[in-house]
Amino acid sequence: MEVIPAHLEYWMRAYYFDTELDLSSSGVAPFSFGELRQLFNITPDDLDRIEMHDSRTLGDPELREAIGNRWANGNAARVMATNGSSEANYLVMHSLLEPGDEVVVLDPSYQQLFSIAETIGCKLKRWQLRFENSFRPDMSEARDLIGPQTRMIVANFPHNPTGASLTPAEMNELIELAAGAGAYLVWDAAFAEITYDDIVLPDPAERYDRSITLGTLSKAYGLPGLRVGWCLAAPDVLERLIRLRDYTTLHLSPLVEYVATRAIENGDLLLKPRLAQARHNLQLLLPWVDNHSEFVSMVRPQGGVCVFMRLHNVDDVEDFCRELAHEHSVLLVPGTSFGYANHVRLGFGCTTAELTEGLSRLSAHFHAYGSSKHRSAVAV
Q1: Among candidates 328, 224, 321, which has minimal Cα distance to 270?
Q2: DSSP string covering 80-108, please?
Q3: pLDDT grade, residue 291 (50/70/90)?
Q4: Do 220 and 195 form a contact (C-beta atoms < 8 A)?
Q5: Alpha-carbon span 220 to 194, nearest angstrom
Q6: How far apart are CA 257 and CA 61, in angstroms?
Q7: Considering just the CA atoms, what is the radius of gyration of the chain in Å?
Q8: Of 171, 162, 166, 103, which is closest to residue 129 (Cα–Cα)?
Q9: Is 147 exposed, middle or buried (0-12, 13-18, 19+ CB in 10 A)?
Q10: pTM of the full predicted structure?
Q11: Which whole number is the average pLDDT over 243-272?
């Protein structure tokens, strides 16, 4: 089985650690461990009591209870703690899909949410989110795509990279379509709590028992380095995931589980300031885009902390982003990482100071890049 290259990860490996300003990421600004210790009153004695033994396959009971209380209506039996939501997604797809299965996926989308199924040999049916329609999900298109042969539907709303979302009524219709097909509904809820219209979509498991919800502390909670995620699913589905995990990661670290438990138990202390920062940063980004309309256009996001901007008069988006990294030390993700040649993913979840400086450098790059292309055209 040949694994399809993860284009976004290749790009981040090349530039993430060698640029000063990150305007690429889809998560909020990270917290330091010192900040966590202060917020949660973690003492040296608390850390000294942690024994570096093996942990449980589904996760430490206290961690599962914390996840269940915050996101699964108190039902810890539906919780599996994972090494980021990426592990959860990998386990779900390899445990529930077979070659030839029909899988409905969003397009564009974070590559892991469809390439694993593609590597398995599944037939992908793409639900398009179009810039011309403000990336609004077209439910009539979903009705055409989802049918008796559909094995799985994969959705992430608010959406990465566009920031689009569903209305509660549209979410209900999607659940009904999944139920009518008897399909698994894999619901990536990484950005569920970062919204700009105060509508937080509920866990679809409240209405549909074949739903599987993926979550993470990486995006909205500013803890990407902790590598903690979860899968919310029926116990029989979790049992299938265990069979594969026994051959891969086995479990999480007790140290990581302790910090994650404290973070989730005190989740609002992390979420609220980062949500406020995201809302403030968005209000800075919107007029910047308006002032640079000759170079870029954008759909206002409904949630998350990234946008999928369309570039004007840029022939090679990867060349544009490479020059931005090399000459201005600013990181953007080219739209080619999502299969779109004339877009970039811009993240605004960083600090306001970083966003302001990053946009200033991006503005300078737009003008310099446009001038150099104009000179090249005149020379020809």
Answers
A1: 224
A2: EEESHHHHHHHHHHHHH--TT-EEEEEES
A3: very high
A4: no
A5: 7
A6: 10
A7: 21
A8: 162
A9: middle
A10: 0.94
A11: 97
Structure tokens at 22: 């990150």
Both tokens of 162, joined, read 């566009």
Q: Which residue has the tokens 């996101």?
A: 71
Report in angstroms the alpha-carbon separations of 332 from 26, 318, 321, 347.
11, 10, 6, 8
Q: Which residue has the tokens 């298109």?
A: 141
> What tens digit of pLDDT does each residue of 175-211 get?
999 999 999 999 999 999 999 987 899 999 989 999 9
For residue range 322-344, what is the model confidence (pLDDT) as tens digits? 999 999 999 999 999 999 999 99
Beta-strand relationship, 123-128 and 102-107: parallel
CA nearest neighbour of 303 among 212, 171, 179: 171
Cα dihedral sign, 64-87-39-53:
positive
Q: For residue 297, how far is the Cα from the chain centroid?
A: 22
CB 295 within 8 Å of CB 311: yes
For the chain, strand residue ranges (E) read 21-22, 79-82, 102-107, 123-128, 150-156, 184-188, 211-216, 229-232, 296-297, 306-311, 330-331, 333-334, 343-347
Question: Which residues neighbour 259 within 8 Å (Cβ) at sequence distance 6 or greater?
Answer: 33, 36, 42, 226
Within 8 A by CB and 6+ apart from 380, the residues are none
- Are 28 and 222 in contact by the 8 Å Cβ rule? The answer is yes
What are all long-range contacts of 355-361, with beta carbons under 8 Å and residues at least 24 apart? Answer: 355/23, 355/281, 355/284, 355/285, 356/284, 357/21, 358/21, 358/22, 358/23, 358/330, 359/23, 359/284, 359/285, 359/288, 361/21, 361/324, 361/328, 361/329, 361/330
- Looking up tokens 């390899």, which residue turns up? 94
280 in helix, strand or coil?
Answer: helix
Structure tokens at 140: 């009539």
User: How far, in whole angstroms, is CA 27 from its chain's centroid?
Assistant: 8
**pLDDT digits 0-9 by tens, 75-124:** 999 999 999 999 999 999 999 999 999 999 999 999 999 999 999 999 99
By CB neighbour count within 10 A (0-12 exposed, 13-18 middle, 19+ buried), where does 83 fall? buried
